[in-house]
């Protein structure tokens, strides 16, 4: 990277880096730094009558230089703590450079340092560390966007959602509460695994690259597998592989992993997302509803210490039991239309002409039509955890037929705060019925439905060996974390969500400038002066442009031989050509 591509602060930090090296200080030492305490630990266990020696490390977040003694603030993985640095204690001999030069001038906000000293309480009553040794552990070359306040107004806040998601490392450092969200996410996963393990279920891993995108109705990502010379699909669900393991004799299996659906993005959806799927033999969807209630209550208490969560001004309770309502009853209640026994065309007429749902198209089958109506008029109304049960068979190609309600299946979706959180079935284990359901799905695909399921012949073969009655469930982990942490955007609970490629300022290349006769060194000077494209200089006066370039050459002490007015005029003429 050319120095002129850096900001003035970045240039200053690199100069400090070189000065440290000139002093014989390695700004990136390899040796272990033996940390024995954290900011949280020091504060929690401080005793006024005990001189406790501590060794801590973290980032410098503030510096207050006060002559022969200064204060700083260090941020480690557990919080922040004040440092007190006395020149004569840090530098007991005649050489005071570690304080006067290194700490005061060459250490910057954001640098990672190691500190040895002892805990004490200042006259203002703040528990701090009296620094006796100070070690540079990592020089920060980019300045942090530290928030500053003046007259009650905050400046340099790092709060742009896209920037926070794109530079999560900065977001974690400067914004309070971000790390706690991801710690709570880890608690959700740890609690879930512990809950399943205690019930005797086995965590497994299934393929991410699959020959057939099965287990859900969704548009897949496609990639090419060079070694096999065939196209493969990023999995949209783990279901069909997990059921194969149930066929093989497992007493319960689950997987927590990434799924990929090549669909839209909004504050509730990300094409790459984390999902948990669990399958337990000899159970049904009634058992799974009770199991899910206990699971979610356990997770909520583990994360928040209570079975209630404050979310968008509402109190959501995960205390069992949850309300249960059949999907067609919910639609009738919210729209006034009873869809029981109606044909596809009758439901399409209701959706298009009576309910005026604009997202319906001619490729939609009966199941998708019902789903569109429910999504438009019902889904958002269920704030407290509610099981929507007994879906029509057209909506549930992998679900067992209802034992007492013809045309319906033993399926539930759990709605919380108006969004689906979980989807579960009494799993279909009749291979003949399953084959016909797949065939029906392929008919939808022939009509143009690019989310219809593909026939998985190997899965059908597995079913023919016999799968015991089984109940399965899928839970969206990202959405669950949103709900138990009170976050309103999925990007806030994903450390690294998908984003568009970062926009870059258009620039003419060094090679393109060279065709005008511009040497490479001067290309970077031109860019520093604001001329990123060759066309940017076509209206410049040669003498004025020479002056601008000369000022930058002088300011940054580059020592380049200044081009003549005649040479610069040739550049300008070339830009006009």
TrEMBL record:
The lineage of its organism: Bacteria, Pseudomonadati, Bacteroidota, Bacteroidia, Bacteroidales. Mg(2+) 2 binds at residue 420. It is an enzyme of class 6 (ligase). CDD domains: LysRS_core, LysRS_N. It comes from Hallella faecis. This is Lysine--tRNA ligase. Binds 3 Mg(2+) ions per subunit. Pfam families: DUF4332, tRNA-synt_2, tRNA_anti-codon. It catalyses: tRNA(Lys) + L-lysine + ATP = L-lysyl-tRNA(Lys) + AMP + diphosphate.
